[in-house]
Design a protein that fits this description.
The structure is a homotetramer. Chain A is of the alpha+beta class. Helices cover 25% and strands 24% of the residues of chain A. In chain A, the strands form six sheets. A five-stranded antiparallel sheet of chain A has the order 1-2-3-7-4, covered by helices on one side. Chain A has a five-stranded antiparallel sheet with strand order 9-8-10-16-11. In chain A, strands 5-6 form a two-stranded antiparallel ribbon. The interface between A and C is medium-sized, with 22 and 22 residues.
Chain lengths: 350, 350, 350, 350
């Protein structure tokens, strides 16, 4: 349980930070869909550590090898499997984690859950490295969505104390504002780390996607997005600010636009009753600060039950938010594509 | 799709606001579990409209009839089905919704999704009334959890501009503070409505519950909680405030307490890597203002595509937050009980 | 787990032989589908005991009450729930089953599985009575399939020593041949019972339905059909006779018929690689003799662990095969309709 | 859809006959389970072509590479992924299949299903080669079952006209009787092929495994076993012979054996109401003759819609039954292990 997502488009992710390879299997991809490997590589590089200042010094080429499900650049319709080799791994860096858990990581919970048999190196299956297969699968989903005129784009709206107050701009791969980079660099210099807020917008969605109650777009996007390590909150449209608003302010009134029904505002983030209403779906994610910091923290030796202190060295990001932007797009795209495929079955008889 | 939740404990909810009955089927409940009908009734009455000031005047006894799966007050282990008859329904109140959708409701999205065949009366399957079977199922889950020493309790921390700054108190069924009731009454008098924030705490959980990536506690609690109409945001632990914190502030350091590993703080809300760490699981939900307001709003006649205005009369709450508190407890309990049942299979060989 | 079937069209069945009601919830039915209640009633009556000679004397009107999901005779698209009240139940008939299990029934396995908390009366959830909701759901599925030109029809090809050697006739609701009725009557007079073989044919299917490996039509039809109590074998096309044939005899050669690709024979029963090939899907089921017989059988008192003997009185069929014919059609129809709905998602982009 | 199996133990299989690799992902394996790679290799070699007389001349070492989920020879509890490289593949052998389908294969149905985008070489994802990952996963399951004292063993009971009338012998890896090998050799010499019947017995199962209705052991074993290409029928216990028996002959009377409840016979094949009764679970499979034969067969050119003839050369088995024996054990073991893991959740509170 855990590493599988989707109802029609089923994604199964595997691997550990320091296993021979990580990867995924995608079942339910429509046949005959073109996969542009070059664009997929560009998308995945946005997540890759090497392209980010203030990022981990672990170098991974993150080159994807397709094992099945693709023929002449098109999906066959049968399971598409891909792997990414872990080339630059150093088990010794994490040799002591198995007894002294790093605060804020899953070292402790993973050990309890798997009765001590989990792979502790680099967080094992809990590592942020597992977002590479997530981005590979999501990058494929994005390519399919684009053919339907659906665009998924995320940006950073806050890092630490710095907020971006600019208008929303529907464009992917926007550069991180200088002020935010400075904020990150400052935290790194202190041996500390930062979190932030990401906003993801999905434009061009038709109305009618999603299901009531437990399988609304809010439910399924949440299920996908909380797979990104460090995400601790999600809101749609005006989200938590809705708690302070009145109904007359929060409701999105209807209007007619170019002969089609539309809305005068988008406080609901494009979703009513779990179902898309034709407005952009707007999602915001809270990302906690990277738990790996070199500052001394109190921990416990799980074998001896003695309190001790730990300073996390090794290679890690002072702020993962810039890299998580790509992950957010990937996770949202997977949820949306699955909803679109499900929607097909409803058209039966219509 | 949509109205089914859970992996081991599967809940299927059915009904419409004005169908003959609403109800649910619970599959996977362990056999031999005692169901205290009286306490279940008390729990469900906390959600029921009649018990809330400023609430809808629709009167429903919400009495549960068990159809199967219970024998001599104990679960048989086979599917437990229950229904709640809809006694006080008035289809005429909603006769015009099918052409003029109410802003903020699922009238429009439901019509698109179901190609015009959905039941529009009172929102049909999207009605808040469907939280009655959710609370019935959740109330049963709560009774099972209590036997494991797990307590689920929610309270209101904000309604409109009024916030509750008191310490967290682990007690269910706390009365709504007077100031909040006044705030609601004021909005009602204006023909308007209010939203708020609910905090739910799950205490007594063992460490090790939940799965990595897509089936962590955050993912599954979110899937359950977004089934409550009006919820537009969720956060765990310090949630969105984590975006402003540094790693050194956000990490929960380990300590030894009474010979057991514990944490010095709970910024993570009891969850690391999707898995419970033994601290209370703390969830906060943003609930939007009730969309039903008597103030005039702009809408569109879906048949003629002409803009028009609508004032929502009928019976509705000026603020559903007080009733949603019970729903939050129910939804969280279902997610947690399912995680506990799943956990059993992992103990294989240990 | 257990009483839920389907991927897009999800059916959840509940109830016990002597619970207040039995029923089902169907999720994923396309909206706007007409349900002809009269024809559904006729279909269900084919299963009902009252209409069969040599059948149980338990009288049940089996009238279906729709609780949700139907409006003006058409599906709304949201969960369709229905119940059938158990009117004629007599718990006392089965008072001793809880300690002395009936051979061939699930009394013993049910008690073990549910740790003694299962409802033993009439077999509880394992009762053949649970095929009433199966037939209700399947009858609805058949009505939808008919609109696509797909016909599901089953007949008895063997009861005890009597076989039907007539040509296949694609017609539903064929009368049971007199010789078979005589055979049943003879067994009943001896206090014994009989089994038989049912053949079900699904005509008018397009090629391309079903999925490879674990979700082929053979896999999913089997999953549906083994839900009928007493079914102990299933075969497709020539089935077990294929073991005696050579490849040159067993292969279905291709031909062109009216400008379309077809086959010269149908040894494969319309399925290759789990996927329909356009020929009729032919399924044969082995049904064991009714385990309830009045002849003395050896059993064990589960409380005292003493061997004892049991003669099963109460009301039961000397041969359930005539009634199981309808169940076979229902189960097959559910599997096929689900495959058709799944197929829609594959058409994405084509 | 299609290549995924299991509820707790989820297996996802991928690959094509001539893709770079085939493999699988197993999620839900209990942590800390020892995997004996040498014994797994021996198990898989029983399926491998090289070890069978009269088998395909395609040589594959079938060596398994574990990519994740195993550490120091034990499962970590997180997804276990493995691949098997396709070394000896020759796409040219199948260059004409894409237009002229081989009778009895999935060439035609695969092309329809995937709109012509499937990989036709060697049957692509429908190839018998995909049973290699099935056997790898099943071989792992068998090792876990053995620790519980559960043994899965299959043997051939019929090939063509030759039947094995010997007593059941609970032993895995029994040699194929000489008479059967002669029968196969004779068919091969004629350019033809043979099918047969495999019997699989699962010994040492506790009573209480499996679920009612759609998830009984019969349903789930069927779902697993029909994943083996060529299986066209399945029966449990006396299966189709039960159709000719009377209740007094077919029922398994209870007895007390060594102070424990047992049965005097096993006509039901160890399953009542879908649930194991403590007797050996006995499954028999009908396997059709290998469709690949060199004798001329009629087919159709799918591009030109002209009838033509085809003689299937390339490398293939004259009878796959000897190799399918291992696959049957693997498929049954996966279904049983999943049922055992599910059973754990039922023990809640007991």
């Amino acid at each position: 349980m855990g590493s599988t997502f989707g109802k029609i488009l089923k994604l199964s992710i595997f691997g550990e930070s320091h296993s021979p390879a990580i990867g995924g299997v995608m079942e339910g991809l429509p046949s005959g869909s073109t996969i542009d490997s070059d664009r997929l590589h560009v998308f995945m590089q946005r997540r890759a550590p090497s392209t980010h200042v203030s990022s981990t010094t672990r170098m991974e080429s993150d080159s994807v090898e397709f094992l099945s499900g693709v023929l002449n650049g098109k999906t066959t319709g049968t399971p598409l499997a891909f792997i990414i080799r872990n080339s630059d791994f150093r088990r010794e860096d994490y040799s002591d984690i198995s007894s002294v858990p790093r605060p804020g990581h899953a070292d402790y919970t993973g050990k309890i859950k798997y009765y001590g048999y989990n792979d502790p190196s680099g967080g094992g299956h809990f590592s942020g490295r597992l977002t590479a297969p997530l981005c590979c699968a999501g990058g494929i989903a994005i390519q399919l969505l684009e053919k339907e005129g659906i665009r998924v784009s995320a940006r950073i709206v806050r890092i630490g104390a710095v907020t971006d107050v600019s208008e929303f701009c529907e464009e992917s791969a926007q550069p991180v504002p200088i002020k935010m980079l400075d904020e990150i660099e400052k935290a790194r210099a202190e041996g500390d780390s930062l979190g932030g807020i990401i906003e993801c917008s999905i434009n061009g969605l038709p109305a009618g996607l999603g299901d009531p109650m437990f399988d609304g777009l809010e439910n399924t996007i949440s299920q996908a997005v909380f797979a990104i390590p460090g995400v601790k909150g999600i809101e749609f449209g005006d989200g938590f600010r809705l708690a302070e608003m009145k109904g007359s302010q929060a409701n999105d009134a209807f209007c007619v636009n170019d002969g089609r029904i539309s809305h005068l505002s988008n406080h609901a983030g494009g979703i009513n009753g779990g179902i898309s209403n034709g407005m952009p779906v707007v999602v915001r994610l809270a990302v906690k600060p990277t738990p790996s910091i070199s500052l001394l923290q109190q921990s416990v030796n799980m074998d001896t039950l003695e309190e001790t202190s730990i300073s996390v060295h090794g290679r890690h990001d002072a702020c993962i938010v810039p890299r998580a932007v790509t992950c957010a797009e990937a996770a949202c795209a997977l949820a949306i594509l699955d909803a679109i495929l499900l929607r097909r079955s409803e058209a039966y008889g219509h």
